[in-house]
Design goal:
binds protoporphyrin IX containing FE, Cyt_P450_B, 48% helix, Cytochrome p450, alpha+beta, Cytochrome P450, five-stranded mixed sheet, Cyt_P450, Cyt_P450_sf, three-stranded antiparallel sheet
Length: 414
């Protein structure tokens, strides 16, 4: 395995001390910061000096940045005061309100949220995930064998993206012979292409789900799309548009973050071959390793809430209607909560990171995510002797998710 950085316990980011003068906090909404810069020193300064920081309206409406672990957790835990119904991501002012507001699972407040969540929750229980394990392992073996056969490949699209898409397609009832087509579409929709091409691919995905939805109306099956089509909330069926928005939510939620966490984790292991070999020698470390990869990658960069009544947070008074932005990677590197937060520690325990959120909207796919990551890393350790970088990795340019767009590697079979 190639070592691109010396294998030390030194921080990969974040300087040892935060500067006293305010860094350019407005850059947090500049996607370029995440592609070519380093947001960690800015977050660190904010945690130390202005943990609930006001950003005045510009391209985005005005909002508060929340950067400390305890404050982020407090917001997550109070779904009544901190609402999701007006969107959970920053949207440029020009884009208006989120069309999914009050309609998709992630963008619904209690009590409706509970009813909507219970329509789909059965597919994500420990039991359901366990029942899928053998199929997941089979799928991963095929993916890894194919990547090894290719010799050189892009770890992000050829490996990391495959398993989560396979799983969510299976849950949603996408027939096996249509999965490859959907995979190609999602690669275009979430890949590095031109925005117009990405948007066309997204439209085509929605078109596909319209068709699948009608098929399931005629012939219900044991899958998520049928559950959404036939399920009732407050005694009423969901509208067709609500079904589609929720399908989109599940597809994006189920694929994008796992891809980013797995490829970010792989990149970290490539920089720390000692950790990878340690994991190979002691598989008992796997659960802790998966949690540390989740904390370290914190791929959901921010989550937004809207204040429903005046409330105090971190010594600031927030008014009704204020937007609050939770910076997940910052909370997960808060030195007030984690020991040596800038060290990637394979054995970290406890590790109560917030990468999967918390409270009412805690990630529905959490169990699925942990299982997918474990199986993928296990299969790579078991059947691949060496993974080497063959070119520079390319980071995603976004303020919503962070991680890698591509990670060129060569994989050699054992
Ligand atoms: C590394 C992988 C993942 C990360 C980092 C992640 C992150 C998150 C976060 C931070 C939230 C909370 C959003 C909020 O509070 O507003 C969330 C919610 C959600 N996630 Fe995940 N997620 C991952 C994987 C998955 C997978 C595999 C699925 C589905 C198969 C999934 C489906 C969902 C859904 C449906 C919600 C909304 C839950 C609700 O509002 O009740 N996620 N996720």
């Amino acid at each position: 395995m190639t070592t691109l950085a010396p294998e030390t316990a030194a921080p990969l980011t974040a300087p040892a001390t935060a500067p006293l003068t305010a860094p350019p906090t407005a850059r947090l909404v500049d996607p370029e910061l995440y592609a070519t810069g380093d947001p960690y020193p800015i977050w660190r300064w904010m945690r130390d000096h202005d943990p609930v920081h006001r950003h005045e309206a510009a391209e985005y409406p005005g909002f508060w940045s929340v950067t400390r672990y305890d404050d982020v957790r407090a917001v997550y835990q109070d779904a009544r005061v901190f609402s999701s119904a007006r969107g959970i991501l920053l949207r440029p002012r020009a884009h208006g309100e989120d069309p999914g507001g009050g309609r998709t699972l992630a963008l619904t407040d209690p009590p409706r949220h509970k009813a909507l969540r219970s329509l789909v929750a059965d597919w994500f229980t420990t039991r359901s995930v366990r029942a899928l394990e053998d199929a997941m392992r089979g799928a991963v073996r095929d993916v890894v064998a194919r990547a090894v056969e290719l010799g050189e490949c892009d770890f992000v699209t050829d490996v990391a993206a495959r398993l989560p898409l396979y799983v969510i397609c299976r849950l949603m009832g996408v027939p096996a012979h249509e999965q490859e087509m959907l995979f190609a579409l999602t690669s275009r929709a979430f890949g590095a292409g031109r925005p117009e091409d990405r948007s066309i691919a997204h439209q085509e995905i929605m078109g596909y789900f319209v068709e699948l939805m009608y098929r399931r109306m005629d012939e219900p099956a044991d899958d998520l799309v049928s559950a959404l089509v036939n399920g009732e909330v407050d005694g009423e069926l969901l509208s067709e548009e609500d079904v589609l928005l929720n399908c989109d939510n599940l597809l994006v939620g189920g694929t994008e973050n796992v891809r980013l966490a797995v490829s970010g984790g792989m990149s970290t292991f490539l920089d720390r071959p000692g950790d990878w070999e340690r994991l190979r020698a002691d598989r008992g470390l796997m659960p802790a390793a998966v949690e540390e990869v989740l904390r370290w990658t914190s791929s959901a960069t921010h989550i937004l809430r809207t204040v429903t009544e005046p409330v105090e947070l971190g010594g600031r008074l927030l008014a009704e209607g204020d937007r609050v932005v939770l910076w997940t990677p910052s909370a997960n590197r808060d030195e007030r909560y984690f020991t040596d937060p800038d060290v990637f520690d394979l054995t970290r325990r406890p590790n109560r990171h917030l990468a999967l959120g918390a409270g009412e909207h805690f990630c529905l796919g959490a169990m699925m995510t942990r299982t997918e990551m474990r199986i993928l890393f296990e299969e790579l350790l078991g059947s691949v002797r060496a993974i080497e970088r063959t070119g520079p990795e390319v980071p995603v340019r976004s303020i919503v998710v962070n991680g890698l767009e591509s990670l060129p590697v060569r994989m050699t079979a054992r």
